[in-house]
Amino acid sequence: MIYLDSAATTLQKPPKVARACAYAVGNLASPGRGGHRAAMGAGQVVFQCRQQAASLFSMENPEQVVFTLNATHGLNIAIKSLVKPGDRVLISGYEHNAVTRVLYAIPNLTVKIASSPLFDQKRMLEAVERNLTEGVDAVVCTHVSNVFGYVLPIEDIAKACQRHQVPLIVDASQSAGCIPIDAGALSAAFVAMPGHKGLYGPQGTGLLLCGQEAVPLLQGGTGSNSKDQTMPDFLPDRLEAGTLNVTGIAGLLEGLRFVAQKGVSTIRNHEEALVRRMGRAFEGMPKVKAFWNGGQPGTQAGVLSFQVEGWDCEELAQKLGAMGFALRAGLHCAPLAHQTVGTLEEGTVRASVSAFNTPQEINRFVDSVRRVVARG
To answer: Which of the residues in the chain have pLDDT under 50?
Structure first.
Protein backbone atom coordinates (compact mmCIF):
# COMPACT_ATOMS: atom_id res chain seq x y z
CA MET A 1 0.00 0.00 0.00
CA ILE A 2 1.15 3.52 -0.83
CA TYR A 3 -0.12 5.71 1.98
CA LEU A 4 -1.42 9.11 0.86
CA ASP A 5 -3.66 10.03 3.79
CA SER A 6 -1.26 11.75 6.17
CA ALA A 7 -3.58 14.77 6.53
CA ALA A 8 -5.77 12.40 8.55
CA THR A 9 -3.00 10.51 10.38
CA THR A 10 0.62 9.81 9.54
CA LEU A 11 0.58 6.01 9.48
CA GLN A 12 4.30 5.77 8.72
CA LYS A 13 6.14 6.72 11.90
CA PRO A 14 9.80 6.76 12.91
CA PRO A 15 10.55 3.33 14.48
CA LYS A 16 11.52 4.98 17.77
CA VAL A 17 7.92 6.12 18.27
CA ALA A 18 6.58 2.58 18.61
CA ARG A 19 9.56 1.52 20.74
CA ALA A 20 9.00 4.43 23.12
CA CYS A 21 5.32 3.54 23.48
CA ALA A 22 6.16 -0.09 24.20
CA TYR A 23 8.72 0.92 26.81
CA ALA A 24 6.27 3.26 28.49
CA VAL A 25 3.59 0.55 28.79
CA GLY A 26 5.89 -1.66 30.84
CA ASN A 27 8.02 0.86 32.69
CA LEU A 28 6.30 4.24 33.23
CA ALA A 29 3.52 4.96 35.72
CA SER A 30 1.62 8.19 36.45
CA PRO A 31 3.64 11.41 36.72
CA GLY A 32 3.08 13.37 39.92
CA ARG A 33 1.39 10.40 41.58
CA GLY A 34 4.32 8.91 43.47
CA GLY A 35 7.97 9.18 44.34
CA HIS A 36 8.97 5.76 43.04
CA ARG A 37 11.08 5.10 39.98
CA ALA A 38 8.19 4.37 37.58
CA ALA A 39 6.35 7.57 38.47
CA MET A 40 9.48 9.71 38.43
CA GLY A 41 10.49 8.24 35.08
CA ALA A 42 7.09 9.12 33.66
CA GLY A 43 7.42 12.67 34.97
CA GLN A 44 10.79 13.00 33.28
CA VAL A 45 9.45 11.84 29.90
CA VAL A 46 6.46 14.18 30.17
CA PHE A 47 8.66 17.16 30.95
CA GLN A 48 11.12 16.28 28.18
CA CYS A 49 8.22 16.25 25.74
CA ARG A 50 7.11 19.70 26.93
CA GLN A 51 10.67 20.96 26.53
CA GLN A 52 11.00 19.50 23.04
CA ALA A 53 7.71 21.04 21.94
CA ALA A 54 8.58 24.41 23.47
CA SER A 55 11.88 24.38 21.59
CA LEU A 56 10.32 23.35 18.27
CA PHE A 57 7.62 26.03 18.45
CA SER A 58 9.67 28.78 20.12
CA MET A 59 7.70 28.86 23.36
CA GLU A 60 9.57 30.56 26.17
CA ASN A 61 8.21 28.38 28.96
CA PRO A 62 7.64 24.58 28.69
CA GLU A 63 4.80 24.90 31.21
CA GLN A 64 2.82 26.73 28.52
CA VAL A 65 2.71 23.44 26.57
CA VAL A 66 -0.43 21.55 27.59
CA PHE A 67 -1.15 17.95 26.60
CA THR A 68 -4.53 17.27 24.98
CA LEU A 69 -6.26 14.31 23.39
CA ASN A 70 -6.05 15.88 19.93
CA ALA A 71 -6.36 19.27 18.23
CA THR A 72 -10.15 19.25 18.65
CA HIS A 73 -9.75 18.97 22.42
CA GLY A 74 -7.31 21.89 22.39
CA LEU A 75 -9.57 24.02 20.20
CA ASN A 76 -12.48 23.40 22.57
CA ILE A 77 -10.39 24.66 25.49
CA ALA A 78 -9.14 27.65 23.52
CA ILE A 79 -12.48 28.74 22.07
CA LYS A 80 -14.44 28.23 25.28
CA SER A 81 -11.80 30.20 27.19
CA LEU A 82 -11.98 33.20 24.86
CA VAL A 83 -15.43 33.32 23.31
CA LYS A 84 -18.58 34.28 25.22
CA PRO A 85 -22.25 34.23 24.18
CA GLY A 86 -23.00 37.34 22.15
CA ASP A 87 -19.43 37.79 20.89
CA ARG A 88 -18.42 38.41 17.29
CA VAL A 89 -15.87 35.89 16.01
CA LEU A 90 -14.00 35.98 12.72
CA ILE A 91 -12.94 32.78 10.99
CA SER A 92 -11.50 31.99 7.58
CA GLY A 93 -13.53 30.32 4.86
CA TYR A 94 -11.41 27.18 5.24
CA GLU A 95 -12.15 26.06 8.79
CA HIS A 96 -12.62 22.47 9.93
CA ASN A 97 -15.64 21.32 11.94
CA ALA A 98 -13.32 21.23 14.95
CA VAL A 99 -13.65 25.03 14.86
CA THR A 100 -17.08 25.65 13.38
CA ARG A 101 -19.06 23.16 15.46
CA VAL A 102 -17.57 24.52 18.67
CA LEU A 103 -18.47 28.07 17.68
CA TYR A 104 -21.99 27.28 16.55
CA ALA A 105 -22.69 25.62 19.91
CA ILE A 106 -22.17 28.96 21.70
CA PRO A 107 -25.45 30.88 22.06
CA ASN A 108 -26.05 34.20 20.31
CA LEU A 109 -22.68 34.18 18.60
CA THR A 110 -22.03 36.19 15.44
CA VAL A 111 -19.65 34.25 13.20
CA LYS A 112 -18.09 36.33 10.43
CA ILE A 113 -16.25 34.63 7.59
CA ALA A 114 -13.20 36.05 5.83
CA SER A 115 -13.43 34.39 2.43
CA SER A 116 -10.97 34.58 -0.42
CA PRO A 117 -10.16 32.56 -3.55
CA LEU A 118 -8.05 29.45 -3.12
CA PHE A 119 -4.31 30.13 -2.73
CA ASP A 120 -4.81 33.92 -2.78
CA GLN A 121 -3.05 35.01 0.40
CA LYS A 122 -3.27 38.71 -0.42
CA ARG A 123 -7.05 38.72 -0.65
CA MET A 124 -7.33 36.58 2.45
CA LEU A 125 -5.36 39.13 4.43
CA GLU A 126 -7.48 41.95 2.99
CA ALA A 127 -10.65 40.15 4.09
CA VAL A 128 -9.26 39.67 7.59
CA GLU A 129 -8.20 43.32 7.83
CA ARG A 130 -11.62 44.50 6.65
CA ASN A 131 -13.44 42.47 9.28
CA LEU A 132 -11.04 43.49 12.03
CA THR A 133 -11.67 47.13 11.18
CA GLU A 134 -15.42 46.56 11.42
CA GLY A 135 -14.89 45.01 14.85
CA VAL A 136 -14.65 41.46 16.23
CA ASP A 137 -13.92 39.99 19.64
CA ALA A 138 -11.73 37.08 18.56
CA VAL A 139 -10.22 35.45 15.47
CA VAL A 140 -9.98 31.68 14.95
CA CYS A 141 -8.00 30.68 11.89
CA THR A 142 -6.54 27.54 10.41
CA HIS A 143 -2.92 27.69 9.27
CA VAL A 144 -3.36 25.16 6.47
CA SER A 145 -6.61 23.91 4.91
CA ASN A 146 -6.99 20.19 5.50
CA VAL A 147 -8.90 19.87 2.21
CA PHE A 148 -6.77 21.87 -0.21
CA GLY A 149 -3.43 22.37 1.52
CA TYR A 150 -3.88 26.14 1.20
CA VAL A 151 -1.33 27.87 3.45
CA LEU A 152 -3.01 30.92 4.93
CA PRO A 153 -0.78 33.96 5.71
CA ILE A 154 -0.93 33.29 9.43
CA GLU A 155 2.03 35.51 10.35
CA ASP A 156 0.42 38.52 8.66
CA ILE A 157 -2.97 37.64 10.14
CA ALA A 158 -1.35 37.51 13.58
CA LYS A 159 0.22 40.94 13.08
CA ALA A 160 -3.15 42.37 12.04
CA CYS A 161 -4.74 40.90 15.17
CA GLN A 162 -1.99 42.45 17.29
CA ARG A 163 -2.59 45.87 15.73
CA HIS A 164 -6.31 45.64 16.45
CA GLN A 165 -5.70 44.06 19.89
CA VAL A 166 -7.88 41.07 19.04
CA PRO A 167 -6.92 37.63 20.42
CA LEU A 168 -6.06 34.92 17.90
CA ILE A 169 -6.52 31.15 18.07
CA VAL A 170 -4.55 29.16 15.49
CA ASP A 171 -5.54 25.69 14.32
CA ALA A 172 -2.18 24.18 13.38
CA SER A 173 -3.54 20.70 12.66
CA GLN A 174 -2.06 20.56 9.16
CA SER A 175 1.01 22.71 9.71
CA ALA A 176 2.64 21.55 12.96
CA GLY A 177 5.78 19.68 11.98
CA CYS A 178 5.29 20.50 8.28
CA ILE A 179 5.68 24.30 8.28
CA PRO A 180 7.82 26.32 10.72
CA ILE A 181 5.74 27.85 13.52
CA ASP A 182 7.16 30.51 15.82
CA ALA A 183 4.49 30.68 18.51
CA GLY A 184 6.35 33.45 20.31
CA ALA A 185 6.31 35.69 17.25
CA LEU A 186 2.67 34.91 16.53
CA SER A 187 1.69 36.03 20.04
CA ALA A 188 -1.47 33.98 19.63
CA ALA A 189 -3.70 33.35 22.60
CA PHE A 190 -3.63 29.64 21.75
CA VAL A 191 -2.15 27.35 19.10
CA ALA A 192 -3.75 23.89 18.92
CA MET A 193 -2.28 20.88 17.15
CA PRO A 194 -2.58 17.08 17.03
CA GLY A 195 0.29 14.77 17.83
CA HIS A 196 -0.65 12.12 15.29
CA LYS A 197 -0.18 14.05 12.03
CA GLY A 198 2.92 16.09 11.16
CA LEU A 199 4.48 15.45 14.58
CA TYR A 200 4.50 11.67 13.93
CA GLY A 201 3.17 10.75 17.37
CA PRO A 202 0.44 8.25 18.26
CA GLN A 203 -3.27 8.90 17.94
CA GLY A 204 -4.85 10.31 21.08
CA THR A 205 -2.14 12.92 21.57
CA GLY A 206 -2.16 16.67 21.04
CA LEU A 207 -0.64 19.94 22.20
CA LEU A 208 -2.13 23.28 23.14
CA LEU A 209 0.36 26.15 23.25
CA CYS A 210 -1.05 28.67 25.70
CA GLY A 211 -0.24 32.34 25.34
CA GLN A 212 -2.73 33.27 28.02
CA GLU A 213 -4.75 31.78 30.87
CA ALA A 214 -7.46 29.29 30.00
CA VAL A 215 -10.66 27.90 31.46
CA PRO A 216 -10.48 24.14 32.19
CA LEU A 217 -12.86 21.84 30.35
CA LEU A 218 -12.34 19.15 33.00
CA GLN A 219 -11.91 19.23 36.75
CA GLY A 220 -10.14 16.57 38.77
CA GLY A 221 -6.88 15.38 40.21
CA THR A 222 -3.63 16.94 39.06
CA GLY A 223 -1.14 15.67 41.64
CA SER A 224 -0.77 19.26 42.86
CA ASN A 225 -2.67 21.53 45.30
CA SER A 226 -4.65 18.48 46.38
CA LYS A 227 -6.22 20.21 49.41
CA ASP A 228 -8.02 22.72 47.18
CA GLN A 229 -11.40 21.92 45.62
CA THR A 230 -10.70 24.25 42.70
CA MET A 231 -8.33 23.58 39.83
CA PRO A 232 -4.81 24.99 40.19
CA ASP A 233 -4.37 28.51 38.86
CA PHE A 234 -1.13 27.69 37.02
CA LEU A 235 -0.23 25.89 33.81
CA PRO A 236 -0.06 23.13 32.77
CA ASP A 237 -1.86 21.61 35.79
CA ARG A 238 -4.91 23.85 35.34
CA LEU A 239 -5.77 22.14 32.03
CA GLU A 240 -4.54 18.59 32.68
CA ALA A 241 -7.05 16.94 35.03
CA GLY A 242 -6.63 13.21 35.46
CA THR A 243 -3.91 10.80 34.43
CA LEU A 244 -1.96 11.79 31.35
CA ASN A 245 -1.55 9.55 28.31
CA VAL A 246 2.06 8.77 29.21
CA THR A 247 2.34 6.02 26.59
CA GLY A 248 1.24 8.44 23.87
CA ILE A 249 3.40 11.25 25.20
CA ALA A 250 6.46 8.98 25.16
CA GLY A 251 5.80 8.26 21.49
CA LEU A 252 5.09 11.91 20.77
CA LEU A 253 8.44 12.87 22.27
CA GLU A 254 10.20 10.66 19.73
CA GLY A 255 8.06 12.09 16.94
CA LEU A 256 9.03 15.63 17.96
CA ARG A 257 12.68 14.63 18.08
CA PHE A 258 12.40 13.17 14.57
CA VAL A 259 10.91 16.41 13.23
CA ALA A 260 13.55 18.53 14.97
CA GLN A 261 16.39 16.35 13.69
CA LYS A 262 15.12 16.20 10.12
CA GLY A 263 14.20 19.90 10.11
CA VAL A 264 10.73 21.36 9.58
CA SER A 265 11.87 23.35 6.54
CA THR A 266 13.35 20.22 4.99
CA ILE A 267 10.07 18.37 5.52
CA ARG A 268 8.12 21.27 4.03
CA ASN A 269 10.31 21.42 0.93
CA HIS A 270 10.00 17.66 0.44
CA GLU A 271 6.20 17.65 0.77
CA GLU A 272 5.75 20.68 -1.49
CA ALA A 273 7.93 19.03 -4.15
CA LEU A 274 5.74 15.92 -4.09
CA VAL A 275 2.58 18.01 -4.44
CA ARG A 276 4.11 19.93 -7.36
CA ARG A 277 4.90 16.62 -9.03
CA MET A 278 1.28 15.54 -8.64
CA GLY A 279 -0.12 18.90 -9.70
CA ARG A 280 1.94 19.12 -12.87
CA ALA A 281 1.02 15.57 -13.86
CA PHE A 282 -2.68 16.20 -13.28
CA GLU A 283 -2.58 19.52 -15.10
CA GLY A 284 -2.03 17.82 -18.42
CA MET A 285 -4.45 14.97 -17.77
CA PRO A 286 -7.87 15.10 -19.48
CA LYS A 287 -10.99 14.97 -17.25
CA VAL A 288 -8.93 15.68 -14.11
CA LYS A 289 -9.44 18.85 -12.10
CA ALA A 290 -6.68 19.32 -9.57
CA PHE A 291 -6.87 21.98 -6.90
CA TRP A 292 -3.25 23.08 -6.80
CA ASN A 293 -1.43 26.37 -6.78
CA GLY A 294 0.25 26.06 -10.17
CA GLY A 295 3.66 25.82 -8.54
CA GLN A 296 3.71 29.21 -6.83
CA PRO A 297 5.90 28.83 -3.73
CA GLY A 298 4.67 28.99 -0.17
CA THR A 299 0.91 28.74 -0.71
CA GLN A 300 0.28 24.96 -0.68
CA ALA A 301 1.44 22.35 1.79
CA GLY A 302 1.52 18.57 1.35
CA VAL A 303 -2.15 18.17 0.41
CA LEU A 304 -3.76 18.02 -3.04
CA SER A 305 -7.46 17.50 -3.77
CA PHE A 306 -8.79 16.51 -7.17
CA GLN A 307 -11.87 15.41 -9.07
CA VAL A 308 -12.27 13.25 -12.18
CA GLU A 309 -15.09 13.97 -14.61
CA GLY A 310 -17.64 11.17 -14.63
CA TRP A 311 -16.53 9.72 -11.30
CA ASP A 312 -18.11 10.04 -7.88
CA CYS A 313 -15.28 10.95 -5.54
CA GLU A 314 -16.03 8.11 -3.08
CA GLU A 315 -16.12 5.55 -5.88
CA LEU A 316 -12.91 6.90 -7.34
CA ALA A 317 -11.14 6.64 -3.98
CA GLN A 318 -12.36 3.06 -3.63
CA LYS A 319 -11.12 2.23 -7.12
CA LEU A 320 -7.71 3.69 -6.42
CA GLY A 321 -7.72 1.99 -3.02
CA ALA A 322 -8.16 -1.36 -4.75
CA MET A 323 -5.10 -0.44 -6.81
CA GLY A 324 -3.06 0.04 -3.65
CA PHE A 325 -3.42 3.71 -2.67
CA ALA A 326 -4.72 4.97 0.67
CA LEU A 327 -6.68 8.19 0.05
CA ARG A 328 -9.60 10.06 1.56
CA ALA A 329 -12.71 11.23 -0.29
CA GLY A 330 -15.74 13.35 0.54
CA LEU A 331 -15.96 16.56 2.55
CA HIS A 332 -13.09 15.80 4.96
CA CYS A 333 -15.00 17.23 7.97
CA ALA A 334 -14.65 20.70 6.45
CA PRO A 335 -17.85 21.64 4.57
CA LEU A 336 -17.07 25.35 4.91
CA ALA A 337 -13.86 24.92 2.89
CA HIS A 338 -15.77 23.08 0.18
CA GLN A 339 -18.46 25.75 0.19
CA THR A 340 -15.80 28.44 -0.24
CA VAL A 341 -14.23 26.70 -3.23
CA GLY A 342 -17.46 25.43 -4.78
CA THR A 343 -17.05 21.69 -4.20
CA LEU A 344 -19.65 21.20 -1.48
CA GLU A 345 -21.95 19.01 -3.60
CA GLU A 346 -19.31 16.74 -5.12
CA GLY A 347 -16.50 16.72 -2.55
CA THR A 348 -13.00 15.79 -3.62
CA VAL A 349 -10.49 12.99 -3.49
CA ARG A 350 -7.57 14.04 -1.31
CA ALA A 351 -3.97 12.88 -1.53
CA SER A 352 -1.73 13.99 1.33
CA VAL A 353 1.92 13.20 1.82
CA SER A 354 4.48 12.98 4.60
CA ALA A 355 8.23 12.89 5.05
CA PHE A 356 8.15 9.18 4.23
CA ASN A 357 6.62 9.42 0.75
CA THR A 358 8.88 9.33 -2.31
CA PRO A 359 8.78 10.73 -5.87
CA GLN A 360 8.54 7.16 -7.13
CA GLU A 361 5.35 6.62 -5.14
CA ILE A 362 3.85 9.79 -6.61
CA ASN A 363 4.77 8.64 -10.11
CA ARG A 364 2.98 5.33 -9.52
CA PHE A 365 -0.05 7.17 -8.16
CA VAL A 366 -0.46 9.57 -11.08
CA ASP A 367 0.08 6.70 -13.54
CA SER A 368 -2.75 4.83 -11.83
CA VAL A 369 -5.05 7.83 -12.03
CA ARG A 370 -4.14 8.16 -15.72
CA ARG A 371 -5.15 4.54 -16.32
CA VAL A 372 -8.46 5.01 -14.52
CA VAL A 373 -9.21 8.11 -16.59
CA ALA A 374 -8.28 6.36 -19.83
CA ARG A 375 -10.61 3.44 -19.09
CA GLY A 376 -13.44 5.79 -18.21
So the answer is: none
